Structure formats: C-alpha cells, structure tokens
Amino acid sequence: MNVGIMTRMPGSVKRRYDATGRCQAAARTRTAILDAARELFAERGYAATSMTAIADRAEVALDTVYASAGRKPDLARLLIETAISGTGQAVPAEQRDYVRAIQAAPDAGTKIALYAAAIAAIAPRLALVLAIIQQAPDQPELAQLWHQIAERRAANMRLFVADLATVHPLRLDPDQAADIVWATNAAELYQLLVSQRGWTPQRYERFLTDTWHRLLLAD
Prior knowledge:
Layout: H1 20-44, H2 51-58, H3 62-69, H4 72-85, H5 97-104, H6 108-134, H7 140-165, H8 174-184, H9 187-196, H10 201-216
C-alpha cells in the first residue's frame, strides 16, 4: 500500500476561485459610499457631515465606510481622484486613455484637441468637488489636499508641454507654457466661465483649444 502517494478521484477537477463577484460587490459599495459623501458634503458641508451620516446614506455599516474608503479626508481625496479619472478609482496619469492618446498623436494640433476634450469632460466633475472644498475654508486638511493636487497637475503640465515640444516648436519657455496650461485647465476657470458666466462646455473646450494654439505654439 502506497501511503505516501495522494491520488485524485477520477473525474475530480480542482476549481479555481473566482473573485469577480466579490470585487464587483466591493466596487458597488465603494461607489455608493462616494456618492453618499459627495451628496452630503454638498448638502451639509464637509465639516458638518459625519462618517455615520455617510454610512447611513450609503446604507452600509460604519466599519464598511472606513474599510472601503478610509477617514473623511481620504474620502475627499477619493472624490477628487475619481472626478479626474472618471472611474470608481484613482488612475495614475500615465495610465489614462486620453494621456496615451495624446502621447501617440502625431502633431501638436491633435494633441491639443485631445487634451482640451479631456479637460472639458473632467472639469464638470472636478468643479463639483471644488465647490465642496470652497465651502470649508477652515479645514486645513482640505486646503493641503487641494494644494497637493495642484502641484501634481503642474508636474503633469510640464510633461504635456514637453510632449508638445517634440512635434512643434514652442512660443514660450517650457516652464511658462506649462504654467499657462495649468492655469487655463483649472476647475476654478471652468467654474467661472461655465457655472457663473453661462458658457457651454463645448464653448469652454473650443476656448482651451484656441488659447493653447495661440499661446503655446510658435508660428
């Protein structure tokens, strides 16, 4: 009798564990939490919104909120990150579809048009989050968070301008060009032109395209 050899019963197949359902459920829960946080921050303000209220609105346990999204400042960061990515999670800049499309574009005009279209899609989502942050000027963690996002954007603008320079000469010093892109694609400008002055998102997109052509590219 061979006791040292394990045998598999005929017809038995080792099944692979499929975590797809669990991942999808976790994603739905996180989305519900983020939606609840966004709604309550807009309705009551950041400071006045408790984590318990967010859990109640999302119809999950409080521990689930902390496990899925973290503390309240973490929720604010996630709201910004998901507004930028347009998905239920943060996506690094180099992995975003529009960034890859811009990098693959053969000429400066196409690169600018692609980026203007991407910003016009991102800006409405980001403007909603900006409005929440503006309502909580006494919250240092939010001010620090927005500053960090702004600095990251500035670094990404330098990469965008460097990419433009590979296919077309620039009118300005690269650092100045990057600052112009950084300022004109900010959610604050979208908020002023679209939310306050009544521009359409399409007009805002055309404005970005025309502005960047005129100010960035040499004749």
